[in-house]
Amino acid sequence: MTRRAARLTATLLLVAGLAACSGSQQSQRQPAERESTLWDLFANRRSANDTVAVNKYLWNASLEVLNFLPIQSIDPFTGVIVTGYGTPPGGGRSYRATVKITDPSLDARALKLSLQGAGGSSVAPDTVRAVEDAILTRARQMRVRDGNL
């Protein structure tokens, strides 16, 4: 009879221990999930997997200045924007662009721009520089407007 009592006691202790473990999980509340937006990509997060290492002003200025070009692919995590061919307003030649933003600082060195003419023809360096200057100027205007000097 003592062996039977010992087994019964051990079984009861095991069941009580399992019940205590499962009860603690039920009493913890799950945090409510928040819907994410595109702007969350630029927010400072603790995890390196959740952050974007590009300057938001350069990114938005690039999209705004090159808005006449159709977007083919866009990746805010690597900072790459690839467009299709399009003709600028008042222009007669079509271009395509590839933009790479390599740094979170608002700096000319963070912006890499490549332009191609129709059929893969090269574009004059002055034209590339003019587009880069337009993007940088617009990015600075956006930063001033936001008051983030």
UniProtKB/TrEMBL annotation:
InterPro entries in the cross-refs: DUF3576
Protein name (record): DUF3576 domain-containing protein
Signal sequence residues: 1-27
Keyword terms, alphabetized: Signal
Highest taxon above the source species: Bacteria
